[in-house]
Amino acid sequence: MRILLDEQLPRRLVHHLSGHDVRTVQQEGWAGLKNGDLLRRAVARGFDVFLTADQNLQFPQNLAGAGLAVIVLFARSNKLDDLLPLVPAVLSVIPSVRTGEVRHVRLP
């Protein structure tokens, strides 16, 4: 799967999502874009999944027609140490998430 990490997530998270082609918003040169533009560009570049901690993303955007799946992380902060415990759940969700679907990943 091709995964795009939102700009508020730590770039080092890329190294923990093995088995996937993972790029950051910054690597693509899209930092600062509004969500709608960002999602359109991600689809145009062939990304399958958008990984974010933006818990309000689904409300302003029509994600069902966005052309990719979204995984929203819920952690104490966006620091790598707080996100790493979510990685196993993210890796288990990725194969089953479908285009237009929003999945929430949090610790039990």
Could you please describe the fold and organization of this structure?
By secondary structure, the protein is of the alpha/beta class. It has one domain: Rossmann fold (3-Layer(aba) Sandwich), CATH 3.40.50. The chain is built from four helices and five strands. It has a five-stranded parallel β-sheet with strand order 2-1-3-4-5. The longest helix has 10 residues. The chain is globular and about 35 Å long. It starts with a strand and ends with a strand. The model has no long low-confidence stretch (mean pLDDT 90).
- The mean pLDDT is 90
Distance between the termini: 25 Å
Low-confidence stretches: none
CATH architecture: 3-Layer(aba) Sandwich
Computed Rg = 12 Å
How would you spell out the order of helices and strands? EEHHEEHHE
Number of domains: 1
Using brief descriptors, characterize the structure shown:
alpha/beta, 108 residues, Rossmann fold
